[in-house]
């Protein structure tokens, strides 16, 4: 009984830390120009990998399973859209949308045993389905919340009318402006919401390889027989997949830009801090998975950060304004919180 109480305490503390950090890890980046986000995502992923190295050393270098890297590849693919999402629809709304689809994808894949995983049985199936349905409803409500994002201006007025080599030449737009800055208001919302949905689906699939390995470790005829049941033992492989994939994307970006990538030195330290916060939050999630089980920790941790980010968006960045938006946000959060609790208690 004492051990069970200790596990619950560790699990809920880890979940709380993960929620706060996931909801806040992009806050350091809000005041800095990050362009199209390709350079930033590489800096962020480098920081994530360094945290993984530390964790791996603390755990005395557990066995490395390359397949666990696939989850990191999936996450990194979704992560390249984060900066455009934040610049188009804001941190609060973006995290609420991708968090909803993250929760829904993670729930469905484990509940029905997609991708070769063992289907997760629950004692109260109806309660479980209600929770998943509420997540879908909340996702649609989030789409109607309008965020106020200051539109970047790509001014050409700062360019001299006469230069040493060119006279009366039509000036090109500011080379530092990214493609996101050139979108119209309608395009901002369409692109931002679409990318948030795609990122959420990818985020919800990131743990699939790890769960697959753990499920198949119980089968003697599997190549993963005897693999660890401790989620933290897969952190290094998972984070290595993240860094490797982000590096490939960044190199491809450099090639596409003809070796003239848009770099933003002022975003390096904030990006590094953001990566460290995310990595710590994910490690806490792994601890919560072990202490509470994924069916309890997953809906809680995916629901909570949206509220934290929304609070940043309302009180700090003023992205979400107006009584109607406030009411919709409160309604959506209540629905997703109810859904998370239903999903969690369906196992108990």
TrEMBL record:
Organism encoding this protein: Sus scrofa
Domain of life: Eukaryota
Record localization: Membrane
UniProt keyword annotation of Transmembrane helix present: yes
Chief location bin: membrane
Family according to the record: Belongs to the TMEM144 family.
Gene: TMEM144
GO MF, any single term: carbohydrate transmembrane transporter activity
Transmembrane segments: 6-27, 39-59, 65-86, 93-114, 126-145, 190-214, 234-255, 267-288, 294-314, 326-346
GO CC annotation: membrane
Keywords: Membrane, Transmembrane, Transmembrane helix
Protein name: Transmembrane protein 144
């Amino acid at each position: 009984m004492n051990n069970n109480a200790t596990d619950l305490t560790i699990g809920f503390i880890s979940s709380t830390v993960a929620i706060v950090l996931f909801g806040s890890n992009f806050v350091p980046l809000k005041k800095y120009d990050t362009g199209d986000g390709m350079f930033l995502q590489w800096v962020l992923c480098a920081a994530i990998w360094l945290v993984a190295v530390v964790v791996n050393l603390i755990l005395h270098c557990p066995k490395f399973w390359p397949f666990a890297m696939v989850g990191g590849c999936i996450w990194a693919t979704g992560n390249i859209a984060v900066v455009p999402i934040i610049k188009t629809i804001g941190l609060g709304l973006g995290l609420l949308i991708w968090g909803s689809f993250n929760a829904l994808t993670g729930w469905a894949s484990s509940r029905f045993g997609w991708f070769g995983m063992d289907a997760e049985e629950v004692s109260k199936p109806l309660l479980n389905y209600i929770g998943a349905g509420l997540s879908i409803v909340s996702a649609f409500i989030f789409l109607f919340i309008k965020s106020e994002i200051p539109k970047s201006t790509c001014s050409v007025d700062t360019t001299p009318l006469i230069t040493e080599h060119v006279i009366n030449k039509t000036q090109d737009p500011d080379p530092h402006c990214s493609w996101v800055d050139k979108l119209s208001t309608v395009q901002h919302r369409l692109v931002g919401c679409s990318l948030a949905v795609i990122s959420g689906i990818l985020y919800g699939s990131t743990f699939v390889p790890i769960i697959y390995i753990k499920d198949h470790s119980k089968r003697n005829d599997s190549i993963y027989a005897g693999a660890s049941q401790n989620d933290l033992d897969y952190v290094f492989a998972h984070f290595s997949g993240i860094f490797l994939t982000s590096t490939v994307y960044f190199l491809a970006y450099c090639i596409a830009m003809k070796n003239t990538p848009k770099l933003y030195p002022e975003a390096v330290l904030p990006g590094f801090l953001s990566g460290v916060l995310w990595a710590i939050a994910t490690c806490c999630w792994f601890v919560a998975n072990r202490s509470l089980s994924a069916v309890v920790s997953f809906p809680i941790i995916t629901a909570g950060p949206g509220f934290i980010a929304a609070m940043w968006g309302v009180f700090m960045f003023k992205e979400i304004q107006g009584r109607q938006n406030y009411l919709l946000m409160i309604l959506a959060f209540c629905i997703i919180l109810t859904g998370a609790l239903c999903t969690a208690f369906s196992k108990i």
